[in-house]
Amino acid sequence: MGLMKSHFGSHIGLSWKINNEGADIVSSDFPALTMASGPYNYSYIFKYIIIGDMGVGKSCLLHQFTEKKFMADCPHTIGVEFGTRIIEVSGQKIKLQIWDTAGQERFRAVTRSYYRGAAGALMVYDITRRSTYNHLSSWLTDARNLTNPNTVIFLIGNKCDLEAQRDVTYEEAKQFADENGLMFLECSAKTGENVEEAFLDTARKIYQNIQDGSLDLNAAESGVQHKPSTPRSALSTDQTQNKEGCSC
Amino acid sequence: MAEKETSDLLSSGSQPNNPLSRKLNKILETRLDNDKEMLEALKSLSTFFNENNLRTRRNLRSDIERRSLAINEEFVESFRVVKEQLDSVYADVKAVNECCQDMSSRLKAAKDQTQDLISQTTTLQAESQKLQLRSQVADAFLAKFQLKQEEIQILRGTRDGSLHPEFFSALARVKQIHNDCKVLLRTNHQTAGLEIMESMALHQESAYERLYRWTQSECRLLSGDSPDISNKLCQAVEAIQDRPVLFRYTLDEFGTARRTAIVRGFIDALTRGGPGGTPRPIELHSHDPLRYVGDMLAWLHQAVASEKEHVQTLLKKCKQTALMLTAVQDHVLDVLNHVTEGVCRPLKVRLEQVVVSEPGSVVLYKLANLMKFYQGTIGNIIQSSSALVCTIEEIQTLCLRMFFNTLSINAGRLLEKVELPPADLGPTTALTQSLQLLRDVLSSHDSSIVPLDARKTDFAQILSSIVDPLLQMCSVSASRLNTVDMATYMINCMYLIQNTLALYEFTDQRLEMLQAQIDAHVDTLLSEQAAFILNRTDLAHVYGIVQQHNPAQGPLSDIHGLDAITIKSAMARFDNYLASPDSYTLPQCSLLLSSKIRESVKKHSIELICHAYKQMYKSLFDESNNYTEPHTIVPRTPEQVQKLLA
Ligand SMILES: Nc1nc2c(ncn2[C@@H]2O[C@H](COP(=O)(O)OP(=O)(O)OP(=O)(O)O)[C@@H](O)[C@H]2O)c(=O)[nH]1
Ligand SMILES: [Mg+2]
């Protein structure tokens, strides 16, 4: 659990850095303008979970995404860990709240409880270990059963830097992804290849779902939380309970 | 030279007192060409003395006198003009002088008059310069120690209670001025310092009050799912840090709002679930205790993590200051304690319900582990002394107690109706069932999500709660058996327990203890086995005496029952045993479940037999025992016997 703690601290540190950048825009004489440039640090919070067999590199992917570093000797995750980062999609600042689950079987019962209300699920296998690919259908079943119908599921074939040890072809996995309607990329937490893309593409897809109304933000556990600083009109449906006229 | 010679000659040669000579001398001495006056006079004389005659010579004197008079008259006449002119000049100069004197005196008067004015002007000028400097100082002072009108306006705020964007810089100014006054107090401007300080203190007080009211109402709005913490609010919280009491109240207000939010969110997740029922309400799974409890605690874990981020966002601008007695990090934890307090009740009620619903030992144990896991996981985010973590801990303790309770009830039942051992001396159904329970508990123990050392502490208790009563039960049920049956039965039971435990961690000590107990029973069994063989071959009596024999008692062959004939016939029976040793095995030994123990009993009992044979053999060959031809009585050497039995 010590790991969990350290993770926690560092991620928050990062997101604060970004927050502070955002904060510099404010303090204008015109409240309206302040509103427009965003008195808040982000407009949305998206919740992600990362799932997959132990050792496929889930924690490394998260670390690469939040810290832009590769953690070569990452210990097994105990239970669930947590990381955040603020990204931008279509000019909107979005805070990703990412839950990295333990792949070890004994934690399955625990990690299943974290699927609830995830807007995005990153399902990871290791391209050098076929068994981790073979287990995908069981992970997918869990993901489908325990999340919303419109949760975006993104398949990641990790460790693509180890081409020589490849055990699962790109084509095969791509076909699996297509058959199951998943987005798919091969990534490397080590080199960072495609890592950014996987997390951002997922966010773009979620954002698109919000835009075309297929994701109802009003729902308590949609995995997306919205800040009232952006004009709602572009977005879906009835947001009456919003405190639009925040007194600042 | 010549003149001198002449004068010398004259003086020496003549009488000096003679007037004529003197006259003559005088004339002689006269040097006319050298006497300029004379020459001039003569020249002048020649201009008017044209005729040298007596009359003229007689008149010469008067002529000259007349002439002199005329000249003088002319001279006088000329001088009179000069004098008249001089007189006029004199008069003029005198007038000028008078004029000048008048002017000078006038000037002097004027000077006397203006001196005062000038010195007055100079003083005034100096004073004016001094005043100008003072005015500059005063302006600078005012700029430094006074608020601008608009700043006062900003601090006063508007009627609707909103804060001007410049509010914080104005507040900072007031604070700065108030601080700077301390410098004034150290100089000789104490009065000014005190006055300004007082007025700034007033401004500050009212500004802080206004700020607090604004912050308070902002915080009250933060009870939504995701609070909208504006940068302005963060700034406000930072500013209000200077008033620890107000700061405390603000954090309380924020905590209360979030507490409401998290309770509502929790209840919604429990009872309403997501949109259109996905994800489903957590309570829908209340029939599955592990999932139900796991979902609740996972939801809380995530909520707590989010809340921590919210609090950190709120306090992101705050720094450690002298006024703040606790570090920002501690405030974060304080607020989190407050925020998470609200969910304790709904959580506790539900957890208790699950625990007391008798879900069975294994589930209780798993639940206790799950709660222990979350106690640690959530305790890493908020203080482990917080109400939420304490609540989880409390129920975890209850759950564990309930678990051990079921184990002891189970143990009580075992000892209440002890079954008799079955005919095959194998495990009773109670034992088999209990071992299954032990396996179930230990497997969930083994795959536990709780860290190793936490698991270790439960372990001794689990083992003593299950294994000790089992062993007790076995002993009780074996109590009416004969020695061999008892040893066999106990070995079998303990062997099964050992087998079960061997699969799990932390059992080494137990296994060792069981092994020692098994060994003791095996010892009993193998000596019984050896005795059985000796009895069946009628050698028991012989061996008994040989063992106790003392040479002082006389030769063995004299002792009853140890005569050569009796021994010989016993040895013949022993030969039969050697021919088919297996048929001399105790029936109970073949009921031993462990083939290893079976082999061990056999092997060690043979060793005992060989040892006994060797001792008897030696005694028969001992001459003091008076056996004639002992090799006819015991034809086989101990080595041969050992080989045959091997
Ligand atoms: N070469 C290579 N190694 C990787 C990559 N990603 C992860 N690894 C290695 O794989 C091992 C496991 O990575 P983790 O991130 O701990 O795996 P995990 O999925 O989080 O495992 P659990 O926490 O047990 O579920 C680590 O030793 C990493 O060094 C990658 O992209 N390339
Ligand atoms: Mg991991």
Helix content of chain B: over 70%
Helix content of chain A: 25-40%
Oligomer: heterodimer
- Please report the first level of CATH classification, the CATH class of chain A: Alpha Beta
Main location (chain A): cytoplasm
Membrane topology (chain A): Lipid-anchor
Pfam family, one (chain A): Ras
Organism (chain A): Paralvinella palmiformis
Features:
heterodimer; A: 248 residues; alpha/beta; Rossmann fold; seven-stranded mixed β-sheet; 8 helices; 7 strands; 35% helix; 20% strand; disordered N terminus; disordered C terminus; B: 646 residues; mainly alpha; 23 helices; binds guanosine-5'-triphosphate; binds magnesium ion
Write the layout of secondary structure elements.
The complex is a heterodimer of chains A (248) and B (646).
Chain A lengths: L1 H22 L7 H7 L6 E8 L6 H10 L12 E10 L2 E10 L6 H5 L7 E7 L3 H5 L1 H11 L5 E7 L11 H10 L3 E4 L8 H17 L12 E3 L22
Parallel strand pairs in A: 1-3, 1-4, 4-5, 5-6
Antiparallel strand pairs in A: 1-7, 2-3
Chain B lengths: L1 H12 L5 H11 L6 H13 L5 H92 L3 H8 L10 H20 L3 H31 L10 H10 L3 H28 L17 H26 L13 H14 L2 H13 L4 H19 L7 H30 L12 H18 L5 H27 L4 H19 L6 H29 L2 H10 L15 H16 L15 H27 L8 H4 L4 H8 L1
Helix pairs in contact in B: 6-7, 7-8, 7-9, 9-10, 9-11, 10-11, 10-13, 12-14, 13-14, 13-15, 14-16, 15-16, 15-17, 16-17, 17-18, 18-19, 18-21, 19-21, 21-23
Bound molecules: guanosine-5'-triphosphate and magnesium ion.
InterPro entries (chain A): P-loop_NTPase (IPR027417), Rab14 (IPR030702), Rab_GTPases_membrane_traffic (IPR050209), Small_GTP-bd (IPR005225), Small_GTPase (IPR001806)
Protein name (chain A): Ras-related protein Rab-14
Pfam families (chain A): Ras
Characterise the protein shown here.
The complex is a heterodimer of chains A (248) and B (646). Chain A has one domain: Rossmann fold (3-Layer(aba) Sandwich), CATH 3.40.50. The model of chain A is unreliable at 1-38 and 228-248 (pLDDT under 50). Chain A starts with a helix and ends in a 22-residue tail after the last strand. The radius of gyration of chain A is 19 Å and the shape is globular. Chain A has 248 residues and is α/β, with parallel strands linked by helices. In chain A, a hairpin with a 2-residue loop joins strand 2 and strand 3 (92-101). In chain A, strands 1, 2, 3, 4, 5, 6 and 7 form a seven-stranded mixed sheet that branches. Chain A contains eight helices and seven strands. Chain A has helices at 2-23, 31-37, 58-67, 108-112, 130-134, 136-146, 170-179, 195-211; strands at residues 44-51, 80-89, 92-101, 120-126, 152-158, 183-186, 224-226. Chain B is mainly α and 646 residues long. Among the domains of chain B are: 74-142; 146-220; 249-416; 526-645. Chain B has helices at residues 2-13, 19-29, 36-48, 54-145, 149-156, 167-186, 190-220, 231-240, 244-271, 289-314, 328-341, 344-356, 361-379, 387-416, 429-446, 452-478, 483-501, 508-536, 539-548, 564-579, 595-621, 630-633, 638-645. The longest helix of chain B is centred in the N-terminal third of the chain and has 92 residues, at 54-145. The relative contact order of chain B is 0.03. The mean pLDDT of chain B is 86. The chains are: A alpha/beta (248), B mainly alpha (646). Chains A and B meet through helix 1, strand 2 and helix 4 of A and helix 7, helix 8, helix 9, helix 10 and helix 13 of B. Magnesium ion (MG) is lined by residues 58-59, 77, 100 of chain A.
